[in-house]
Design brief:
Layout lengths: L1 H21 L8 H6 L2 H8 L4 H8 L12 H6 L10 E5 L6 E6 L4 E8 H5 L6 E7 L2 E6 L4 E6 L4 E6 L7 E9 L2 E10 L2 E8 L8 E4 L14 E3 L2 E6 L4 E6 L4 E4 L8 E10 L5 E13 L2 E10 L5 E6 L2 H11 L6 E6 L2 E6 L6 E4 L4 E4 L15 E5 L8
Antiparallel strand pairs: 1-2, 1-24, 2-3, 4-5, 5-6, 6-7, 8-9, 9-10, 10-11, 12-13, 13-14, 14-15, 16-17, 17-18, 18-19, 20-21, 21-22, 22-23
Length: 392
């Protein structure tokens, strides 16, 4: 930074001396000066502009558009004050590995999109699974038998080889914690399941192997486990139950509190704290009805005693729309937490139903305008809160 400030002072001083001689009131600034500035110095200067001015400036130069995600700009406009700090990413096969951005702070879709290959300067087009947490993304590449953990903002990445080359991933959970991040893999071996655990905070970063739980954990390939009080929680298919994996001792346990009656599907959501780490609260979203048909959708919170306490019910009209979207195929439903919102998504529907916790109200997220009117299933949403200093 000292070298950058030194170069900036030299450029500014030279321009100031030249401007005095040339009478700046009558002549515009020489564009050659800007063209000679190093990219990092230009980013540093532009990061001090007010957000409104910067948005107007971006339309004047194609090279200014990607600066919204530059480290200088994001570090200058912190998440607490920047309307660019909280995004929902939409993945769909028709976008060809580009991710449209919904700005939750301004309530609008952006005219820019993210691309993993552009951000990482490498080919990541062969990944089969993508999950996110705490500003980081984890990609599974079955061809190279590896996982790629990346910070798109800092353009940093780490490649982690599978525990073994014959590994078939049936379930992948990736969560950030105050100590780093955890990668949880459930894989079938012969007639039993095995758990492979990777913790970035350990001095010796290697995989640990534990016994799995039952034949499988969830009927939904899009739903991750959630982190709560040092454990990873999972919902099982019928007969519905909640189980958790203790990260300290590697043992499986069933949740003490019984689930509500007449459930048609169950999903779990862990609330992030102010720093973006998971595990502050635990919610359960479930449909209530008969014969696999939901008549209502409700939200419960786990109490300190380990019981589920009902706190909200989805309004009837919104419930009818959501049920018609799913066509009672609840394996397509998945949920996640994002900046004060409990997001309920469907793999076959291009909208998000979300619950705003602070206001205790339900809303629909507007459809992405770049999506064709007729498009097939394959909608996958991700929470993205850029963090420059999130370590990979």
């Amino acid at each position: 930074m000292k070298n950058k400030n030194k170069n900036l002072n030299i450029v500014t001083k030279n321009y100031y001396n030249t401007s005095i001689i040339m009478n700046p009131k009558s002549l515009p600034m020489d564009p050659k000066i800007w063209s000679k500035l190093p990219p990092e110095i230009l980013e540093f200067i532009l990061s001090f502009l007010p957000l409104k001015t910067f948005m107007s400036l971006r339309s004047t130069c194609k090279g200014f558009w990607p600066l919204i995600f530059s480290p200088s700009f994001i570090s200058k406009h912190s998440p607490s004050s920047s309307p660019f700090s909280s995004f929902l990413l939409l993945s769909h096969p028709q976008f060809h590995r580009h991710f449209p951005l919904y700005d939750c702070n301004l309530g609008t879709w952006r005219n820019v999109s993210l691309s993993f290959s552009d951000s990482l300067h490498s080919s990541v087009l062969s990944y089969t699974t993508l999950v996110s947490s705490g500003g980081l993304f984890c990609l599974s590449d079955s061809i190279s038998c590896s996982l790629l953990v990346c910070n798109l903002l800092a353009k940093s990445k780490r490649k982690i080889q599978y525990p073994n080359f014959n590994l078939h991933i049936e379930h992948l959970t990736f969560v950030t914690t105050p100590k780093g991040y955890i990668i949880f893999i459930l894989s079938s071996e012969s007639n039993s399941n095995s758990v492979f655990l990777y913790e970035s905070s350990l001095k010796i970063q290697s995989w640990k192997k534990f016994n799995g739980f039952g034949p499988f954990l969830s009927d939904n390939p899009h739903q991750q486990g959630v982190y709560f009080k040092g454990c990873l929680y999972f919902a099982t298919p019928e007969p519905f139950s909640v189980v958790y994996f203790d990260l300290e001792n590697g043992k499986w346990e069933r949740s003490i509190g019984g689930l509500p009656n007449q459930l048609t599907f169950v999903r779990l959501v862990s609330v992030n704290d102010d720093d973006g780490f998971e595990g502050k609260k635990l919610f359960l979203i479930g449909g209530v009805g008969n014969n696999g048909i939901s008549r209502s959708i409700k939200l419960w919170e786990m109490s300190d005693e380990g019981n589920w306490v009902e706190i909200q019910s989805l309004p009837d009209l919104m419930c009818k729309k959501f049920v018609s979207v799913c066509y009672h195929n609840y394996e397509h439903v998945y949920c996640f937490w994002h900046e004060g919102m409990i997001c309920i998504c469907c793999y076959t529907w291009p909208e998000i139903l979300y619950y705003l916790v602070s206001r205790r109200t339900w809303h629909w997220l507007p459809r992405c305008p770049s999506l064709p009117l007729k498009c097939s299933c394959g909608f996958k949403w991700f929470s993205f809160v850029p963090k420059l200093y999130a370590q990979v």
